[in-house]
């Protein structure tokens, strides 16, 4: 009869519980450096934005309080900036209305429909469109797009002339607000398509496979799983594109034939200018209070962009709790 072998506590057969990992990782030098660098970067952004706002307010304040007859146009600052603000918003909205569905369609094709050997080069090509200078888009809009759109504008006037947007008379050159909106739509399309594509690719694979296993077609699967999951991302992409369209300068300045009017006619030769284009066109020849007036219009554009981004962040924050796990 054999007796069971005994082990000596602390001997080679009993090493005790494994050692616990060190807890003070946050106190390491690398973590401190990284945390400090990230904090400094965030503070730098805030200080830069505050500095820009302070500069615009300081330099533009004389135009805000100046007598109406001293401001360019002779009617005061707010009557001067209203047509510019209207044109800025109108051109950006046209671009967003055109680019939003196109960007969603392009992103869905690349992420869920195109073969892999086609999707990757197409994605790179769409991303490369963002690197094209705005002056190239402006020249393309003047010399190619505008003449090609003149027959389309005439058809719109004949068919939908009862609407104020297409009342006419049609511009003979095609340099209209609608042309500028199309050019802006092409410019913001790469940004919006890239954001939407990345968001669509993050949809949980299990949700997609579950929808297909239950008998859904590919389009039904996209409508039930991909689009709800990517809703906040699509809003973020749209707001990024809208911000780009609001601040675009050279392309709009080249395409439009601006005037100090508020007009909803999108195909006529009389168009409202935008704030950024007006600054670019008039700043080299301005002096004195005229410069302050242009800077004050820049303050209005800065405020508009800030409000749009603030609203976008609020919309995204309301939907950030949605995910594939808790849907």
Automatic annotation (TrEMBL):
Q: Which CDD domains match?
A: TM_PBP2 (cd06261)
UniProt keyword 4Fe-4S, yes or no: no
Gene name per UniProt: pstC
Provide one Gene Ontology biological process annotation: phosphate ion transport
| Single GO molecular function | phosphate transmembrane transporter activity
Entry keyword set: Cell membrane, Membrane, Phosphate transport, Transmembrane, Transmembrane helix, Transport
Q: Which SUPFAM superfamilies match?
A: MetI-like
State its location(s).
Answer: Cell membrane
Segments spanning the bilayer are 33-58, 84-110, 122-146, 176-195, 249-269, 289-312
Membrane topology term reads: Multi-pass membrane protein
Which taxonomic lineage does the organism of this UniProt entry have?
Bacteria, Bacillati, Actinomycetota, Actinomycetes, Micrococcales
Superkingdom, natural source: Bacteria
Its recorded name reads Phosphate transport system permease protein
Family recorded in the similarity comment: Belongs to the binding-protein-dependent transport system permease family. CysTW subfamily.
Q: Which GO terms describe its cellular component?
A: plasma membrane
Q: What is its main location?
A: membrane
**Location of the ABC transmembrane type-1 domain:** 85-312
What is the documented function of this protein?
Answer: Part of the binding-protein-dependent transport system for phosphate; probably responsible for the translocation of the substrate across the membrane.
- Which residue stretches, if any, does this entry annotate as coiled coil? none
Which stretches does the entry tag as region Disordered?
1-30
